[in-house]
């Protein structure tokens, strides 16, 4: 004879529902991917403008004498590597999101013309201020720069940011489940004839 005994674990159903909320987040991760991309982009820009690579080590300044003088004339720093010229490339980091992936890259577009200040050649000849049209796309510029200074990589800080964002989204998914569960309880306790209309996760609107 086979004896079956059911064991009921108090609160287990609620745990399963919370796991379902997390599963729904993982099955529809577009919002999560978007927030990750925004934070990673911010971190890469900040690190790059500080002249540091993914390891946190400053890039070695190896400007030629002529280029160094040119940078000085244009008001650009020469005591450390400053990977910004017109600002177009770092502002051209874009991202694309689907259920399956997050892709971060550089926009395949040519940046706006930039202005050069008046300069002098080594012989003393004056080169007047002028506007220069760009010929490379931001993606092409990034690729060429990456060959010399691999800046478009995740560092430890970026990884910590990703972990923090994932935890925040999981917490939010669980909190939303708990909120709507509370709504159901409130709806059961609402006097007959009143209509309960949820607006968003921050509040409800009771209408008679």
Structural class: alpha+beta
Q: Helix coverage percent of residues?
A: 40-55%
| Main beta sheet | 2 strands, antiparallel
Strand content: 5-15%
Q: Provide the low-confidence segments as ranges.
A: 193-208
Give the strand order of the largest sheet, numbering strands 1, 2, ... along the chain.
Answer: 1-2
Radius of gyration: 28 Å
What is the approximate shape?
Answer: elongated
| Number of alpha- plus pi-helical segments | 5
On the 0 to 100 scale, the average pLDDT is 76
Query: Order of helices and strands, N to C?
Result: HHHEEEEEEHHEE
- Distance between the terminal alpha carbons, to the nearest Å? 59 Å
- Estimate nothing, just give the exact number of structural domains: 1
State the total count of DSSP E strands: 8
What keyword list fits this structure?
two-stranded antiparallel sheet, 208 residues, alpha+beta
Write the layout of secondary structure elements.
Elements: H1 12-27, H2 30-49, H3 65-73, E1 93-97, E2 102-106, E3 114-116, E4 119-120, E5 126-127, E6 130-132, H4 138-148, H5 156-189, E7 195-200, E8 203-207
Antiparallel strand pairs: 1-2, 3-6, 4-5, 7-8
Helix pairs in contact: 1-5, 2-5
What does this structure look like?
- The chain is of the alpha+beta class.
- It has one domain.
- It has helices at 12-27, 30-49, 65-73, 138-148, 156-189; strands at residues 93-97, 102-106, 114-116, 119-120, 126-127, 130-132, 195-200, 203-207.
- The strands form four sheets. Strands 1-2 form a two-stranded antiparallel ribbon.
- α1 crosses α5 and α2 (30-49) runs antiparallel to α5 (156-189).
């Amino acid at each position: 004879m086979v004896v079956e005994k059911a064991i009921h674990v108090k609160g287990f159903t609620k745990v399963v529902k919370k796991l379902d909320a997390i599963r729904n987040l993982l099955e529809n991760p577009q919002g999560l991917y978007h927030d990750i991309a925004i934070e990673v982009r911010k971190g890469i820009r900040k690190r790059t403008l500080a002249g540091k690579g993914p390891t946190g080590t400053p890039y070695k300044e190896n400007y030629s004498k002529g280029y160094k003088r040119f940078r000085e004339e244009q008001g650009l720093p020469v005591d450390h590597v400053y990977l910004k010229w017109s600002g177009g490339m770092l502002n051209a980091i874009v991202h694309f999101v689907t259920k399956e992936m997050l892709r971060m890259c550089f926009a395949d577009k040519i940046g706006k013309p930039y202005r050069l200040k008046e300069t002098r050649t080594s012989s003393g000849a004056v080169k007047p201020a002028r506007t220069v049209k760009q010929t490379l796309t931001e993606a092409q510029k990034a690729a060429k720069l990456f060959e010399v200074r691999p800046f478009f990589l995740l560092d430890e800080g970026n990884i910590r940011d990703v972990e923090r964002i994932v935890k925040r989204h999981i917490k939010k998914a669980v909190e939303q489940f708990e909120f709507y569960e509370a709504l159901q309880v409130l709806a059961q306790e609402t006097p007959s004839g009143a209509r309960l209309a949820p607006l968003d996760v921050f509040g409800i609107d009771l209408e008679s």
